[in-house]
Amino acid sequence: MLGGVSKAFGDLRVLTDIDLSVGAGQRVGIIGLNGAGKTTLFHVISGLEPPTRGRVVLFGREVTRTSPSGRAALGLSRTFQVTLLYPRLTVRENVEVALLGSTYRRYRLRLWRPLRTHGDLRTRSRELLETFGLWPLANVEVRHLSYGHQRQLEITLAIAVDPALLLLDEPTAGLSVAEMAAMRRLLASLPRHLTVLVVEHHLEVIFELVERVLVLHQGSIIMDGPPSAVRTDRQVQDLYFGAHAAAQVARQTGGGVLNADRRDEWTKGQADRREEWNRGH
Ligand SMILES: Nc1ncnc2c1ncn2[C@@H]1O[C@H](COP(=O)(O)OP(=O)(O)OP(=O)(O)O)[C@@H](O)[C@H]1O
Ligand SMILES: [Mg+2]
């Protein structure tokens, strides 16, 4: 997937000489402190940022200079931090738009069964929403959904295009406890044939979902192994507990370090405010 990939923004070296190969159907978690380079890694894989050095290969093809849409056409799909939904369309209409957008390029490139009729579209959107537990909300306009449901819908749309590789950047960020449980169920029900790379700060979410965990630290992969090995690894524990201690010091001294610990507080605050807003509408 990646061969000798480095990425710098000016003098700032964000990724250094990353080699990574991921088998078809593998589920891989990526963890690491804030600023470790996780999102940048996703940008390089999906084509939003060119690497400074190295090669990107997807599905056996070199795509280092291929556009994001070209990579999507090969079978890559991803979610973003910002919501890319149509707020005034219903949940079901959003899925149907995603399905329509995917049909043409799939038909061309993979001879994937095209949606020939209106009936096909209706059936497929219903199947998808039922699979991910969103069918009861099918006729609700997206702007009326809770934040948690919007994030679930984003993943549903990312799956609607029938990708082979899915990149999820912090699917549980900002969710309340109840929303988090629903998201964990959704993640567990992702199709088994799908290759999934998921960045997460909630380690328990990662550990239950994936069979392989990469630890990214200051732009390098410092560990690559099964969850059981990563969970008990001394270096990883030092990293996370070290961050925890640093956060406490920062709080006591009024410092502004935004590390994993403080971010959780921040995202929880966001979720609480969103829930308040949702209740008021
Ligand atoms: N477009 C950019 N220009 C300059 N610097 C950038 C850019 N994008 C990211 N960076 C820097 O690269 C480093 C890694 O950022 P990145 O977003 O990849 O981290 P991350 O591991 O995803 O962190 P988080 O857990 O907070 O999401 C950070 O220091 C960030 O400020
Ligand atoms: Mg990030």
TrEMBL record:
ABC transporter domain residues: 1-243
Gene3D superfamilies assigned: P-loop containing nucleotide triphosphate hydrolases (3.40.50.300)
GO cellular component terms, semicolon-separated: plasma membrane
PANTHER family noted in UniProt: AMINO ACID ABC TRANSPORTER ATP-BINDING PROTEIN, CONSERVED COMPONENT OF ABC TRANSPORTER FOR NATURAL AMINO ACIDS-RELATED
Keyword ATP-binding attributed: yes
Xref: SUPFAM superfamilies: P-loop containing nucleoside triphosphate hydrolases
Full protein name: ABC transporter ATP-binding protein
Cited CDD domains: ABC_Mj1267_LivG_branched
Pfam annotation, one family: ABC_tran
InterPro entries found in the cross-reference section: AAA+_ATPase (IPR003593), ABC_AA/LPS_Transport (IPR051120), ABC_transporter-like_ATP-bd (IPR003439), P-loop_NTPase (IPR027417)
UniProt biased composition (Basic and acidic residues): 260-281
GO BP annotations, alphabetical order: D-alanine transmembrane transport; L-alanine transport; L-isoleucine import across plasma membrane; L-valine import across plasma membrane
SMART domains named among the record's database cross-references: AAA (SM00382)
Annotated region described as Disordered, given as residue ranges: 258-281
Keywords assigned by UniProt, alphabetized: ATP-binding, Nucleotide-binding, Transport
An MF annotation (GO) of this entry: L-phenylalanine transmembrane transporter activity
Domain of life: Bacteria
